[in-house]
Amino acid sequence: MNGFDSYRVRERADVARWVLIATFAVLSGAFFRTQIVQHDKFQLRAETNRLRPIALTPPRGAILDRRGRIIAENVPGYSIKLLAPNRDSLRAVLARVNRFVPLDTSETEDVLRRFAAARYQPVVVIGDATFETVARLEEHRAVLPGLVIQAEPKRLYPAGKAVAHLVGYVSEVTESDLTANRFPGAGLGSIVGKAGLEREYDDSLRGDEGVRYIEVNARGRLVREEASTAALPPTPGKPISTTIDLDLQRFIDSIWPAGVRGAMVAMTPKGEVRALYSAPSYDPNAFVGGISSTLWRALNNDEAKPLLNRAIQTRYPPASPFKLAISAMGLKRGLIGLDTRMPTPCRGGLRLGNRVFRCWKKEGHGSVDLVGAVAASCDVYFYQLGLRLGLNAIVQDGVLMGFRDKSGIDLENEIDPIYPATTAYFDRLYGPRNWSPPATTLNFSIGQGENTQTLINMMRFYEGLTGDGHAPSPYIVRPRAAEPRSLGLTAEQLDGLRRALIAVVERGTAAASRRADLSVAGKTGTAQNSHGEDHGWFIGFAPAEKPELVVGGIMEFAEHGTTVAPYVVRTLRRYLLGPDTAGTIKVKVLLDETVSPQDSAPRPIELDPDSAAARDRADSVRLAGGAP
Amino acid sequence: MRQAALDRRLLWVSLGLMAFGIVTLYSAGQTDVPTRAAGVWSRQLVWFGIGAVAGWVIFHVSLRLLEWLAPALYAFSLTLLGLVLAVGTGAGTAQSSHSWLSIGGHQIGQPSELAKVATVLMLARYLSGRKEPPRSFRDLFVPALIVGAPFLLVLKQPDLGSAIVFIGIAFSMLFWAGVRPRLLFMIASPGLSLLLAFNNWAWAAWMVAFTALLVYWRPYIYDWVLVLSLNVAMGTIALPLWQRLAPYQQNRLLTFLNPEVDPRAAGYHAIQSRVAIGSGGWFGTGYTQGPQKRLAFLPEQHTDFVFPVVGEELGFVGVMVALSLFLALFLALLRIARRATDSFSSLVTFGILGLFFTHVFENVGMTVNLMPITGIPLPFFSYGGSFFIICSLCLGLAFRVAWDARQSGYPDI
After folding, report:
1. What is the ipTM of this complex?
2. How far is A78 from chain B (nearest CA, A)?
3. A-chain residues within 8 Å CB-CB of B349?
4. How confident is the model at residue B290 (pLDDT cuts 50, 70, 90)?
5. How many domains does chain A have?
6. Cβ(B377)–Cβ(B387) under 8 Å?
7. Which of A68, B77, B160, B339 allows an S-S link to B115, with CB 3.0 to 4.6 Å?
8. A27–B368: do the CB atoms touch at under 8 Å?
9. How far from each other are the two terminal CA atoms of chain A, in whole angstroms?
10. Cα A276 to chain center, whole Å?
11. Residue A278 in contact with residue A165, Cβ under 8 Å?
12. B132–chain A Cβ distance below 8 A for any pair
């Protein structure tokens, strides 16, 4: 063939040589770029490829009561986790774990669910493992690929269910929490406070997570548990001191009648909360290390709603305790004095137009002054006082006294009370012509109607009564920045109201337990409940002359405030006189009965005093309450 | 004669590459969780032995005999390619393709490897039989047929990587036969047109420039018309053709442009390979110590992606040594091709050079994202029996050509 003379071949060979050398240069350049120029970038990629960070849980700050006793602390615990490349292999390893440590089906399902949420992190199998479990699994590590055993501080609430609603509980942060950035600084797998003080002070309690690295391969299999890369130790959370008296808190839990729903709060006139209890309660320790879904469902489906903090998350009609607010409004506006009597003496009811509004006491109270009216809880007196004030004034002063605001306690999820801002509220609710202002006024005068309050918010009002008329917002750790509410009453007026409250207890207790050691003042209330038996209120304070503690209690379906009073009095005695004096005492309180058809009824009850229904009602009241 | 039996340079270079290859392959098997790659280095040693025998045998076969046998060998390999399409099986990561010939469940080999050598021989026979180098498209019709048949059959398997090798062989041999570069460029132009057709403006600019070039070069009128209409046709069918590609093929091409498009699936190889190479730095992480390989982040580390093992563990220095060895191999083959006694031997040697070159450039290029990812082994490094035997055969042929030249006292041109 012609093309192969030496000259032509040499020519082509030169071209070929240059092409080869150029290609070599291009490839060298590409490798130089990758290995030398971009080395750092790929080095980092390589590191992140194989090292998987595992968060080290910081010990949460302790929660202490006012004397430094422990409400929440940390004890050493172990968590058993599994790092698995996929669902199937996780299932397989779980089946083997089951041989050494029994796991039930729902637990296995929980693990698989958690795995689906974060597949590149070791999934928690047992959040709170005993040392025996750890030892047994460690022994069989060879057949349990991906086993990660981590020593973790574990939350412990020594007082258990006694402090549940107060401290709340901790659990792993959820995906939606993270999306909403509800816990700044928390990452997947962080343990955060979900309720109570744990939630409120989570920021300082939580501390900062540390990190260590485990080495994995491309299939996500654990290769080495301790990677050479330095670990960052966690920063422990800060402890918080509270105003709580743990003894008192435990005491309330111990005396609370079984099966009764309700709440009790104890606080000083300065707003320091000494105890906050809600029933039914739950064991916050059950949440440590991940609550089982069975228990979680049970807690959520329980008709008694144990997770609900009834001190701050349930509204009740304030009922008779609200009469003190009406009294305060009258005194403040100068419409009445402490000795003012109303024109119409109580004969068991008040006629308004063609309707008769009943007093709880069929026989009537006769002519009473303000102190007497408070002591006897005379509805007729307060109907007239209400009418004298007018609905506008009641609504206006109520808003000023804080019945439309949260108490401001430093706990999350306190709900707003319901109280109208103006009378236009009723127009919006019922239509301008469909409600009767006088009837509504009467309803409001006795703490019924479109007015529902949380226990803690009513407590704040009584806090004002116990001192100089100023009510700082209640707090457990530190007050939220808020101006103290002022009732606008003089010292004399306050003193008078307190005397009235003393009379409530003193007259009732005259026979049963006249004990000179402690004078208790307080007010009972019965909140009409359309869904069943009425709720009972009692808010009291002691010593009556110079109050040191205010205790409020509410019991659902308790029928009367008198049912609640002994528990409140015992709590006051326990706190003020010590453990020996707080034994079972019989407290009799002046019975009062305030009734209205419904919490939110547009019109107050309308009973003909001579009707059979009215008689029945009065009889039942007498029977149930043992009224004098 | 005995002492001059083998071309020294080629001998040392190929021994060096094989040693480097087996050492790398051993390291590729050293992973934290043992895989099937763990023992392949010892099996590769067996293939080295078989390959040596095959090379020794072919070394003792006259090239005249091979020239005479070329059509039969070519026809045989085409038959095997046809057969493998009908009864072939997949292997490894390409389970669904038909590239392996199996008998009774045992994989015998990949006929496409044999076809590469057969095509080299056949093309060399045809080109050396011509009076003068091909000057027009008409002259290129037969070479196109010779390469096109195995190319299409392999493409149908589908095995894009091997198919590209046929193109590489064809271009290098045509060049060596004396086809003018501008004609080669014109042959390649429809391919360029196909690539550029995805952007209207780029394609329009290309067509204008190409037409200007044609006017300047003044080729034969038929070639003129043909190549231009081919370019237009390619520009037109590009999109429909794209849509006919299998999704994995589309993905590979797309991820070549940007591996981060799909880092977990299609881009995984491209990314992990570069991570392994890039983390090597100047001197690497140490022999057998590469974490990416050890922890199995590096896929196919004993076959198609064996080269990143070099990059990760021996660093840029190791890569340069390996690439230099390959360059030395190419230059040694080039030297033999120049010194060959006759045009057939010369073309065969250069065809072998083209074969090796395509493999190396494509394989090494894809590990640094210089080339799109195709399943193509790296000579002397990747584990594989039939491919290594073919490499040995090629070396045997080259040794024979060198020996012939020396025997006939051919001058060193």
Report:
1. 0.89
2. 28
3. none
4. confident
5. 3
6. yes
7. B77
8. yes
9. 136
10. 10
11. yes
12. yes
